[in-house]
Amino acid sequence: MPKINVLDADAKAVEGITVSLDNGRSTADGRVSGTVSVAETVAAGTYTITVTETGNPRVHASATLTVTAVPTPELTVSPASIVQGGEAVKLAGTGFHTDADMNATATTG
Predict the structure, then answer these.
(1) Hey, which end of the chain has fewer CB within 10 Å, N or C?
(2) Domain of 58, in residue numbers
(3) Do 66 and 46 contact (CB within 8 A), yes or no?
């Protein structure tokens, strides 16, 4: 089974990035494939993933993975000011999690 290392820019081991190889070994033509999962707790930054043959540590390859921060949600109403009893305003937002349940409230301020 190949050895897998995930290191940050300071060459320190990283928790929260999980790498799994399909079948845990290379194919007959020397290829490997698998998946990389990144937990929400992983800081934004560049990480190095290295796969090494268990029986021959001189045979290895590395790739970099860049993790970007989740954008801060933004919300707008348009127009931003209306007369009492006026028309409805449009609401638009970005940066929320995909397929998340949402609710909206209105407060005075």
Answers:
(1) C
(2) 3-67
(3) yes
